[in-house]
Automatic annotation (TrEMBL):
Similarity comment text for this entry: Belongs to the 3-hydroxyacyl-CoA dehydrogenase family.
Annotated EC: 1.1.1.157
PANTHER family in UniProt: 3-HYDROXYACYL-COA DEHYDROGENASE FAMILY PROTEIN (PTHR48075), 3-HYDROXYBUTYRYL-COA DEHYDROGENASE (PTHR48075:SF5)
Phylogenetic classification of the source organism: Bacteria, Pseudomonadati, Pseudomonadota, Alphaproteobacteria, Rhodobacterales
Official protein name in the record: 3-hydroxybutyryl-CoA dehydrogenase
Any one Gene Ontology molecular-function term assigned to this protein's record: 3-hydroxybutyryl-CoA dehydrogenase activity
Keyword entries, A-Z: Oxidoreductase
NCBIfam families per record: PRK05808.1, PRK07530.1
Length: 291
């Protein structure tokens, strides 16, 4: 099945990256959010990020103009019914995602494939509440989307092969690499990454090391480009905690117990870069460790 038109729901930090790479690969994009402000901001961010690619010689100016002209924003979810593929990337809350799919269903073409960029919610459960569980799967991009090479493709229990193949071809056309994951809590990347971040927070909590010594150890000792606490701030501490809770609840193993210090940061509203403070304080020019 050929995909021409892609509907993207949610114009947050992931949605703008997804719209960027999908439009740059030549697809028409219908880009939806409940907030006009979010859509306007997303277009400005895409424009700025594409401009950076032009100045680095990674994209030419006419390709940028073409890509931007292929993105049509809309506050009306039913308009996305014309799309061949929907990528839902709204807020990580199951009730929000479920309502989006329910509202879309009456407007969809019979062939439309539904996907979600969720980091942790069960694909099988989201799919089971639609009229097409065999045409439903996880399409999980990494942050920041224009830079990161990987897309995790997650099959729900009912996902059929033509649906998987169609999504795989989209990933190839984006010039990215797909890794296939079965639908278990947090899939592959976050199943491995989040316990490491959580362990880094325990290491801090138990006083084994300071923020600086933990991040320096992992950067210089294991060649990671970012330390685990810096990375947690980049992802968002609320997101990290939510994923640890999904692992803990879904796998019922105490090894996934979220560190109480991570919970405390989230309770304080210190969610990382997006709120200006997390394991580092970003309010000055140079980030300062908060412990
Ligand atoms: P975000 O908070 O930056 O953006 C969410 C957007 O969804 C907002 O613009 C909001 O207005 C919009 N929205 C909320 N309800 C909506 C509705 N009913 N219809 C349309 N739009 C709606 O969040 P984000 O970081 O972009 O995350 C989006 C999804 O991507 C989540 O499922 C998240 O788990 C996943 N994800 C996030 C990351 C990450 O590093 N942040 C990485 C991979 C996947």
């Amino acid at each position: 099945m050929e995909i021409r038109k892609v509907g993207i729901v949610g114009a947050g930090q992931m949605g703008n990256g997804i719209a960027h790479v999908i439009a740059a690969a030549g697809y028409d994009v219908l880009f939806n959010d409940i907030s006009q402000d979010a859509l306007d901001k997303a277009i400005l961010i895409i424009d700025g990020n594409m401009e950076r690619q032009v100045s680095k010689g990674k994209m030419d100016a006419s390709a940028k103009a073409d890509a931007l002209s292929r993105i049509q924003t809309t506050l009306s979810l039913p308009e996305l019914g014309q799309a061949d593929l929907i990528i839902e990337s709204a807020t990580e809350r199951e009730t929000v995602k479920q309502a989006i799919f329910e509202d879309l269903l009456p407007h969809l073409e019979p062939h439309t494939i539904l996907t979600s960029n969720t980091s942790s919610i069960s694909i099988t459960r989201l799919a089971s509440r639609t009229d097409r569980p065999e045409k439903f799967m996880g399409f999980h991009f990494m942050n920041p989307v224009p830079i990161m090479q990987l897309v995790e493709l997650i099959r729900g229990i009912a996902t059929d092969q033509p649906t998987y193949d169609a999504c795989f071809s989209v990933v190839e056309r984006l010039g990215k690499t797909a890794a296939s994951s079965e639908d278990f809590p947090a899939f592959i990347v976050n199943r491995i990454l989040m316990p490491m971040i959580n362990e880094a927070v325990y290491t801090l909590y138990e006083g084994v090391g300071s923020v600086t010594s933990i991040d320096t150890s992992m950067k210089l000792g294991t060649n990671h480009p970012m330390g685990p606490l810096e990375l947690a701030d980049f992802i968002g501490l609320d997101t990290c905690l939510a994923i640890m809770n999904v692992l803990h609840d879904g796998l019922a193993d105490t090894k996934y117990r979220p560190c109480p210090l991570l919970t405390k940061y989230v309770e304080a509203g210190w969610l990382g870069r997006k709120t200006g403070r997390g394991f580092y304080d970003y309010r000055e020019e140079v980030p300062v460790p908060t412990r």
